[in-house]
Amino acid sequence: PPKPIRTPEQRASLQRLAAALLNHGIDGPGPAGAARQFLAGRTPKVSGVRQGDPLRLDGESTVDAAVRLALGLERSFLPIQGPPGSGKTFTAAKVITALVAAGRTVGITANSHAVIGNLLKEVAEQTSEQGVGLRAIQKVSTAGEGVDHPSVQVTTSNGDVEAALLNGAADVVAGTAWLFAREGMTEMVDTLVIDEAGQLS
What we know:
The protein is an alpha/beta fold. The chain is built from seven helices and five strands, in the order ααααβαββαβαβ. Helices cover 40% and strands 9% of the residues.
């Protein structure tokens, strides 16, 4: 049988999260604020929405609500749930396009390169249709796993991704948990979109 998958990045990231929880509590300032609130079962913190009020406005479509709420998140999180075929990937692409148009950097992660690539392709289509410039970089394990699109740079190097973010050369960064758990990726994106989050430990 194959050896267990190595997870030193994830274990170190969990230790940093535990330290943030011990040092700052659930709601205090400091690193991993959204993760601490999420683990404690807090409701999303959104600019202009009072705690306890409905997140979606009367007559507002799910997509419009998701875009408005994502743009207003205050170091918080926004879970979106629905069965297969209900439009979660389409909605996520709309959200990412709106965030990029607003000048934010966005991370995309999921439990496989194929799932990540599917969402990244949808983002490339949405940004193209809406006239939003896209500068994306996708970290893959082996050549051939990445999205074939002129707006997407594909790399097998974690260093390339970190350099692109530090240099302001990328608006969207895509990769698995092995990328985003790296200490060098801490606080490097404004928003992290986790596709099929229920399947991602």
